[in-house]
Design brief:
alpha/beta; Rossmann fold; 7-stranded parallel beta sheet; 17% strand; binds adenosine monophosphate
Length: 476
């Protein structure tokens, strides 16, 4: 994904070049090659790029360079007005983008902060009030701060909407509109989206001024580095099939997607009971649990991370080789995002899908969206290959399309946004309150000898996520 063009040739400052070289990047990726010079020149940009292409650095580096003239080490908040706003859909993405801002801006005296819902707001207020030039935020929590007048956005010079399609999917459009009204008219706008729906084009038309279109991947396309594989498996056989596959293929780091939070919990429990260390990441997990699960997964303490679609976007896990769709997503575009967690930064990846009889129509939708026919693998894992039980996939698809049981394609927009609202992660805008019990279970360590995750129970209802006692690695 890199080329012979150097970062120096893109006109980046020495402070930024130093930070880039510390990251070990030798050459800019295609999106960086295209986006950086255009953004430096001050144009608005509509970027079509999937995650894993290096798009974060593609907008963060030129943003930092454009703001570099304001860099100062004064302790006065007045000397650090908010000049760049990066809106992202999820807290995980917010944290990742914020990390990138800090990494690439290591040698630039600009202050930055990240705000998202589900955590205590006071700590964020303190950070904002100390003065910050760059703010990474999820829309719901940013609006809370704006309504409380914790910050003003009248000095914004650059607005960046990252994963704009996801923000719309999650029902953030009204919030985004409100936020934009509080920005000065004179500003540079950058919008990135992995997919280009009509809604995205409409939003772009409202926000961007004479944008330059940058596209590094075909619309709705996925990385060539990813091999797509389908196994036909009946729903009730999926768990055993998965366990067999993990053991026989000795898979060490796998991100698995389920359709529901309950399904994710259930699967992780099952895997743990069979000595395959697993954790879950979904909307009912508080921020600490989610961060911890991701960290443990990234550093290899756990082999399996079971996630729902809310976790699908923006996760950046180095060298993730396998994504397994334990269940296919209802929305084919989510397939693109799920499997975008692998095949990143030039590495090869496998996107494996377990497809039951009921899901055949969803597979058809995915193949149509990607314009490819996904390879069906014979099972050599000791389980009976289920493919023979699907003699007439076309017929199933036809029947299901008629009943509309599994496809939402003909759904009206209002109905769709209502459905998506229901799927929205409550933690973006709400404080964490467990729906399930008065106690939440936090992972506090790993007992390697017993291959067990050690959990501790904390009361949940009275405690916002941020005040959960610090996690220790020692067993209590
Ligand atoms: P992104 O698409 O922004 O999520 O980036 C995906 C991954 O690519 C991240 O792990 C980055 O650290 C990495 N990356 C970004 N730019 C480069 C580059 N020029 N060379 C190598 N890796 C990069």
């Amino acid at each position: 994904m890199s080329s012979n063009i150097s970062f120096e040739q893109l006109g980046l400052s020495t402070d930024l070049l130093r930070a880039i070289s510390e990251q070990g990047y030798t050459n800019p990726t295609p999106i960086q090659q295209q986006a950086i010079p255009i953004i430096l020149k001050g144009f608005d940009v509509m970027g079509g790029a999937q995650t894993g292409t290096g798009k974060t650095a593609g907008f963060t580096l030129p943003m930092l360079q454009k703001l570099e003239s304001h860099a100062n080490s004064s302790t006065s908040p007045a000397k650090h007005p908010t000049r760049a706003l990066i809106l992202v859909p999820t807290r995980e993405l917010a944290m990742q983008v914020y990390e990138s801002v800090r990494t690439y801006g290591k040698y630039v005296a600009l202050k930055s902060a990240v705000i998202y819902g589900g955590v205590n707001i006071d700590v964020q207020i303190a950070a904002i009030r100390s003065g910050i030039e760059i703010l990474v935020a999820t829309p719901g929590r940013l609006l809370d701060h704006l309504q409380q007048k914790n910050l003003i956005l009248s000095k914004i010079e650059i607005l960046i909407l990252d994963e704009a399609d996801r923000m719309l999917d999650m029902g953030f459009l009204p919030d985004i509109k409100q936020i934009i009204q509080m920005l000065p008219d004179q500003r540079q706008n950058l919008m990135f989206s992995a997919t280009f729906s009509e809604e995205i084009k409409k939003l772009a038309g409202k926000i961007l001024k004479n944008p330059i279109l940058i596209e590094v991947a075909k619309q709705n396309s996925v990385s060539d580095l990813i091999s797509h594989i389908v196994y036909y498996v009946e729903s009730k056989g999926k768990q055993e099939f998965l366990i067999d596959m993990i053991k026989k293929k000795n898979l060490q780091q796998v991100l698995i997607f389920t359709r529901t939070k309950q399904g994710a919990d259930h699967l992780a429990q099952k895997l743990n009971s069979r000595d395959i260390l697993s954790s879950v990441i979904h909307g009912d997990r508080n921020q600490l649990q989610r961060t911890q699960a991701l960290d443990n997964f990234k550093c290899g303490l756990i082999r399996i991370l079971v996630a729902t679609d809310v976790a699908a976007r923006g996760l950046d896990i180095e060298e993730l080789t396998h994504v397994i769709n334990f269940e296919l997503p209802n929305n084919p575009e989510d397939y693109v995002h799920r499997i975008g967690r692998t095949g990143r930064a030039g590495a090869k990846g496998f996107a494996i899908s377990f497809v039951s009889r009921e899901e055949a129509v969803l597979l058809g939708d995915i193949e149509k969206l990607l314009g490819i026919k996904i390879q069906v693998e014979e099972s050599n894992l000791g389980l009976k290959n289920q493919q023979t039980e699907f003699p007439n996939k076309t017929k199933i698809i036809e029947e299901q399309k008629k009943s509309r049981a599994f496809s939402f394609k003909n759904e009206s927009l209002s109905k769709r946004s209502k459905r998506i609202e229901k799927m929205e992660d409550p933690l973006f805008s709400q404080p964490y309150i467990s729906k399930h019990s008065d106690l939440i279970s936090i992972q506090v360590g790993i007992d390697k000898s017993k291959k067990q995750i050690i959990h501790k129970q904390y009361p949940s209802k009275t405690l916002p996520a941020l005040f959960i006692p610090p996690v220790t690695s020692k067993q209590k």
